[in-house]
Fold this sequence. Notes:
Layout: E1 7-12, E2 40-42, E3 53-56, E4 59-64, E5 67-72, E6 78-82, E7 91-100, E8 122-127, E9 141-145, E10 149-153, E11 173-176, E12 188-195, E13 200-205, E14 208-212, E15 228-231, E16 236-244, H1 250-260, H2 266-277, E17 292-298, H3 303-306, E18 310-314, E19 319-320, E20 328-331, E21 347-351, E22 355-356, E23 359-367, E24 373-381, H4 388-391, H5 401-404, E25 409-417, E26 427-434, E27 438-445, E28 455-462, E29 465-470, E30 473-479, E31 492-499, E32 504-515
Antiparallel strand pairs: 1-4, 2-16, 3-6, 4-5, 6-15, 7-12, 7-16, 8-9, 9-10, 10-11, 12-13, 13-14, 17-32, 18-21, 19-20, 20-32, 21-31, 22-31, 23-28, 23-32, 24-25, 24-31, 25-26, 26-27, 28-29, 29-30
Amino acid sequence: xxxxxxxxxxxxxxxxxxxxxxxxxxxxxxxxxxxxxxxxxxxxxxxxxxxxxxxxxxxxxxxxxxxxxxxxxxxxxxxxxxxxxxxxxxxxxxxxxxxxxxxxxxxxxxxxxxxxxxxxxxxxxxxxxxxxxxxxxxxxxxxxxxxxxxxxxxxxxxxxxxxxxxxxxxxxxxxxxxxxxxxxxxxxxxxxxxxxxxxxxxxxxxxxxxxxxxxxxxxxxxxxxxxxxxxxxxxxxxxxxxxxxxxxxxxxxxxxxxxxxxxxxxxxxxxxxxxxxxxxxxxxxxxxxxxxxxxxxxxxxxxxxxxxxxxxxxxxxxxxxxxxxxxxxxxxxxxxxxxxxxxxxxxxxxxxxxxxxxxxxxxxxxxxxxxxxxxxxxxxxxxxxxxxxxxxxxxxxxxxxxxxxxxxxxxxxxxxxxxxxxxxxxxxxxxxxxxxxxxxxxxxxxxxxxxxxxxxxxxxxxxxxxxxxxxxxxxxxxxxxxxxxxxxxxxxxxxxxxxxxxxxxxxxxxxxxxxxxxxxxxxxxxxxxx
Length: 530
């Protein structure tokens, strides 16, 4: 066995008063210009703690590929780091290294999972709360959680569901959602930068930019961080942590990664760039063949009449059939996203018609202004495949819950998403299978979708294989499976287009095709079966 790739360990419960050391890791490899020195470094040597570094509770040192870190072996173990951080400076950068003892992957969550550990879903990398997984009480936290959210926040409270992240003044936070790419037994470098004057924060993995803070809000409020920082999660091995007094550029962060990584993997970098930068996009080549039937064809050139093919849920007056000469305009109120006032003031248009089996949908869309969100839902049915619009009272509110928290199974694709929780220097595509909290697709276009320009959406589902494209480039490409504890592959229901607040989008040329089914149908006869 190669000694540089083995995983070694020893039991570790100690406090060290050794002098602080700010030395480069043994695995550092020369990579271009001289490295930028950090203001302070924690855990430079996990086996000889420096002044201000304390481990309380059972833990062990793990060495992987020449790098060392501390792995708590109890949920109660805390690594305390005192003095030296720059989180209260007007600008700065935090860089840390870790590896996981298991793949960090989202899963179904249920209340009974909280019996012994209320905060079981949080995997904290760093926090200013003495119980680092208690994200809500921390003024600063850096975490991945089982909702597939990777986030740094700079305020006390939570972004969801309490909405403190949206209450004025707008709080400072940055995230990548969904993030499902941390593999076990591999070192990752995480970084977050902040700049109060620029009112911005950025999030990096292995030097790749994956998250930007809200581009559309004037506020960037950061609560003051505590003097001591804390880490500790049994699933993680916590490595070196560095603070800088400047907001490092992406190139500078990437250099620190390449200089320090002991196991650079070209495929991991390629995947991160593909998902978050929109590199290596494939062409969408599907065309419905002779065994596909056109079920729906609405150009929206006579939108006042054609809108009768749909049921409008939510903010009815946001649907404006005569609002644009080129198609159907949906324009929702321009009120702050995330506020309670905004919840009902969003809108769905549901096809009255249902579709069965493999499906292909296409339409053209044009956003009239930046900052909004529109999504497509397909295969929307009740929980046992019933027509929820026919069998139950029609839903009235425009709240997001209909998509993912109610009794409507569906796949949804957020195809236009210039929101406060994703990068807005790229175009993004996010998909989830509902209501199972199963995030199954994410991709990016290299640049934002041009405003006041027509774009074409195409999505095809053949059994569990789903591919979605904008302007002929595939942004979503995933496989669903009936045996993953997230329900069967969905194959029946309505489609819907949904718009959140501060959205103004025009739609035209909506077409739906379904593939020929393997069975034939006939009407039921009279009560005697004749």
